[in-house]
Model the fold of this input.
Amino acid sequence: MQITFLGTGPSFGVPVVTCDCHVCASPDKRNRRLRAGLLLNWTNLEGEESRILVDTTTDLRQQALRVCLDRVDGVLYTHHHADHVLGLDELRIFGFVHGTSIPLYGRPDTMDAIRHTFEYAFDNNAHGVPRIDLNTIDGPFNLRGVHVIPIPVLHDRITISAYRIGNFAYVTDCSAIPEASAEMLHGVDILVIGALKRNTHPKHFSLDEALFEIERLKAGSAYLTHLSHEFEHEELEKELPENVHVAYDGLVLEADEPLT
Done:
């Protein structure tokens, strides 16, 4: 499975509008962070290729152009906050070109919020709207030949979805991992985890909290995402443990996943 970081930034993105700090003004492209999202690519045992998004970020059009995305076969949603869903309308073009509906997967509250926010997409008499199918998930499921495990984690007072596929896991916008969920994430080879700021935040892990969770989960390697403009890429990379890295937009990783 190929994992492409479409974005590694927080809800404001980096550079932040109105800000001229040294990170926002940096010439290093690794400090330019679109809203956090992933593209997953795999080929199943029948030779069928899949392109799966994790969230439809506010920057999805720009992200799709950057990676020459020509098809979307499904979307895994972590939760329904604006920076993770408001790019959904960008799915229209894929439906137009390929003539198929795109399945969306997420928790019941996430699917309900999408139905409410994008009500026009569910009008059977409407034209020029996204062609999508909502799928509520409450446990592991098969997605185009791959075993996907949604894992409940906390984002302040709401429960959202982390995901584990084989030895890869994605945990963003997280403020706490319940013990039962930690057991499901334990020993993962590649862990992507959010680290918004240095100081504590009610809705997100701080840097120290993310590093604590990486150790707690005994991850083989970890990549920090959902990073604010407090973090300069090269400076942060130098202070991290050997197995922890700073993710950046466009970074591509390879992971093993169980085909079914």
